[in-house]
Amino acid sequence: MTQNPQLTMALSKGRIFEETLPLLEQAGIVVTEHPEQSRKLILPTSRDDLRILIVRASDVPTYVQYGAADFGIAGKDVLYEYSKEHPGGLYQPIDLNIARCRLAVAVRDGFDYEAAVRQGARLRVATKYVNVAREHFARKGVYVDIIKLYGSMELAPLVGLADAIVDVVSTGGTLRANGLVAVEDVMPVSSRLIVNQAALKTRAAVLQPILDAFEHATPSQG
Question: What is the rounded CA–CA span in Å between residue 32 and residue 124?
Fold first, then answer.
């Protein structure tokens, strides 16, 4: 693969992008176009040697591991699932403490989750976080059938596809709007800086100062 002279960073639209901008600015980097106002998927920055790739959140680890991006930012939820299928492929040096939320179990309002668990019922659980969900319920000794969905998770309990979902919860507003309630936390989630291991070795002179700047700009966990 031909070495690209530029550094490439992979980011996803939305909350992670918005909360990364101040960290980039503290590192002296300004993204000169915004993905919500531009159709471009490769965005320039104020540094000639750095560009931003806009990709799906779940694809960020793939772009970084296979060298299409030198580094990127992804949520712990995405990284956990990815690492189960691609162990050891990414270096994760910094928890940036941004885009914080949690993975939680949610059910239809009125469904007695505790009773179902206590009675040993076999639950159907819809989620895109298959590995996280399977391990969570295994630790509890709860038998589950996992149904993999990629979106509109809240619909599953409402139409009888599943008894529960495991999904990202931030404010809980989407759950409430759809008549669901969170009944159990699975894991806290924040976004992490991830780095291609080869790039860290071969391009350390240009990459490490950016990583250091991110570490110094990262908000403390509170």
Answer: 46
pLDDT category at 11 given cuts 50, 70, 90 is: very high
pLDDT (tens digit, 9 = 90+) per residue, 131-184?
A: 999 999 999 999 999 999 998 999 999 999 999 999 999 999 999 999 999 999
Q: How many residues make up the chain in this entry?
A: 222
Q: What is the CATH number of the domain that holds 125?
A: 3.40.190.10
How many alpha carbons fall within 13 Å on the CB side of residue 10?
26
* The one-letter amino acid at 153: M
Domain ranges, residue 170: 101-188
Report whether 187 contacts 167 (CB < 8 A).
Answer: no
Residue 194: in which H helix or E strand, if any? strand 180-195
DSSP 9-75: EEE-TTHHHHHHHHHHHHTT--BSS-TTT---SEEEBSSTTEEEEE--GGGHHHHHHTTSSSEEEEE
Q: Is the pTM of this model over 0.85?
A: yes
For CA atoms 37, 153, 132, 173, give the dihedral sign.
positive
Q: Same domain, yes or no, for 77 and 95?
A: yes
User: How many Cβ atoms from other residues are within 10 Å of residue 211's Cβ?
Assistant: 18
